[in-house]
Amino acid sequence: MSWQALWIWGDGEESPRNEWRCFRKTFDVPAQGAESASLRISADSRYVLFVNGTQVGRGPVRSWPFEQSYDTYEVGHLLRAGEPNTIAALVLHFGVSTFYYLRGRGGLLAQLDYGTGEVGLKTDASWLTSIHNGQHPRSPRMSCQQAFAEYVDARDWDGDWMNADYDDSGWTGSVELGEVGMAPWTSMKPRDIPMLTEELIYPVRVEALAKVSTFKLSTVIDVRSVMAPGSEEHSDIVQFTGYVATTIRAGRAARATLGFLAWGECLKRFSWNGEIVGSDRFYGIMPERYVDVELKEGDNLLLIDVSTERVHHGKLNIGVYADDPAELSFVYPGTGESESAFLAVGPYDSAVNYDHKPSREVNWEDEAYKSVLGDVKGAEDLGRYAAVSKPIPLKYVAEADVFGLCVWRKDDVKLAVPAQLQNAVIPHGEAGVVPVFEGFDTEVLFDLGKEYSGYLSFEIEAEPGTVLDWYGFEYMAGEYRQQTYGLDNTVRYVTKAGRQSYSTPVRRGLRYLALNVRGASAPVKIYNVAFTQSNYPVAEVGRFECSDPLLNDIWEISRHTTKLCMEDTFVDCPAYEQTFWVGDSRNEALVSNYLYGVQDILKRCLRLVPGSKDQSPLYADQVPSGWSSVIPNWTFFWAIACKEYYEQTGDRAFAAEMYEHVRFTIEHYLQKIDENGLFNVKGWNLLDWSPIDQPNEGVVTHQNLFLAQTLRVAAEMGELSGDADGAARYREASDQLAAAINEHLWNEEKQAYIDCIHADGRRSSVLSMQTQVVASLTGVAQGERKRKMDAYLFSTPTNFVQIGSPFMSFFYYEALAKVGGVSVILDDIRKNYGNMIRHGATTCWEQYPNFAENRANPDELTRSHCHAWSSAPAYFLGRETLGVRSLSAGWTEVEIAPVPCGLSWARGSVPHPAGGRIDVSWTADEAAGRMQLSVSYPVDVTVRIKLPEGFAGEVKETKLERLV
Question: Are 555 and 594 in contact (CB under 8 A)?
Answer without folding.
Answer: no
